[in-house]
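Researcher: Sequence of Endoglucanase follows. Predict its structure.
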Amino acid sequence: MGRKDVLFLFAGLLLILAGVGAQRCDVISIVEKSSNSYAAKFTSQTEFPFVGVNVVFTFDHPVTSVINHNGKSEMMDDTHVRMTDEYLFVETGAFVHFSFEVFHSGDTQPEVIAVDLNGQDACEGSLTWTTDAPFINSCEETGMAPYDYAQALCMSFLFYEAQRSGVLPPDQRVKPWRWDSALKDGANVGHDLTGGYYDAGDHVKFGFPMASTTTVLAWGLIDFKIGYEQTGQTEYARAAVKWATDYFLKAHTAEYELYGQVGKGLVDHAFWCRPEDMLMERPAYKIDREHPGTELACETAAALAAASIVFKGVDDKYSEELLEVARELYAFGDEYRLEYHLSITDVTDFYRSKSGYGDELLWGALWLYRATREEVYLRKAQEVWDNFGFGKKIGAFDWDDKRGGAYALGSVMDVGNPQYTAALKEFLRHVKEDFPYTPGGLVYIDMWGSNRHAANAAFVALWAAKYGDPAERESHVVWAASQIDFILGSSGHSFVVGFGVDPPIRAHHRSSSCPNPPDSCAQNNWGYEQPGPNPHVLHGAIVGGPAEDGTWEDDRSDYVHNEVACDYNAAYTGALAAIIEMRN
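Model: Prediction complete. Tokens:
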């Protein structure tokens, strides 16, 4: 625990030189000297992470030999010495120390006048890594009761900022412990795939759940815009959507090509450190005509179509670009039909779609119809409905299965067609009545992210309260609010990091569990195993939630019940805006 000190001991470094000494580098300190030798130490912080220390010393007089007892040494010429340790992992801001001894034959003590530390000029000691002041939650309390939905909504966007990958913008609010990261994403395939969101407590960019997250965030912004406006969150909501859609535009590298994942699942999950310190390979995976993926293509099309509505009248050029790509991707997914995990095989153990691709074909067609009002998409939706037997199975609403959302959207897009309204009514009845509830009142749909599933259903219920049968409005609002209230604290404690009474403090989340440099996250597996709270508060993030019997522990190692994820917060965010809108 504590400060990260990377010991790099070089003993027996022999250097012989003559003449007048020059100005010694500030990072070198003399420990002991005699007439023909001296012992010294080197200490400097690093600006970026690396594996393998490679230090080049430049001396002001020639040297004749170097002895290194603990690593490799190389005489590059008579005034340059290279010293290496190829196995050390050095984190951002970590201290590199090593000791050396210089022997010389003349009366003049040789000085180190230049130091190159893995490409960094370390001579002047100017590499000292500093951090900003501790982060302060910028989402103020509003006094809203029974829970501060407005503050919770604001904080949800702080969570999305904390999940950003790539070059962070100047207005990034989560600054002191999040910096630029994964800046070489896509380099292995010759494309710029920087940006987007890290999926959950890890650092993989999974395109399918990211697209689903984006669609649902945009949906809430479109249909509950008053709730966003009343709380001053509209611009933050748009920024959250755009951070994803900018990435999707990069990932669509040709008409029939879309990159759907960056990072390798198991390799990434074995690395518990800051995203800024990633050094492992991050391969990029794509779908194309030879290796298609209908769910991925059509969900990304839905996200871009929904986002085009968000930006229409705000940035029309951007809106049109999003819509153009949405059309291409939907056509791609429809023309070349195949489950996407058969093409991006690494996703199989993480985000394989068990519902198949029919729901994304329906969902994408409905969003494109909403964005364009072109009848071809409404006809496509009906064709998919008939061919895939929608209405016969109730379905769900999550990153995988879009049926619950499609029923709601279709009920207002295809006015007069009773199939969507009937399916929506049955979906909500099924969720409310056929699933068990925890002792605290949370509808228990699935063990993985039980809070997420309840929030997703609550969002659909609130949407139906506004746009569906007026006779069911009150019952939908009361039930949905009870689910969101559970997440916010009605069970006795909050499940939202940094919010309310007794919130989680040990979320399964790498970057917030790592201390600021120069303290180490990797040394002795500190970030994962230390028993205390995460050093940084991941404001606004929902953790997975309780088991069916209501039990839950604030345990960092429990990724089933205590991990966070971008899709966990998506419908929850819209539900907060809906409650705010309906109660004012």
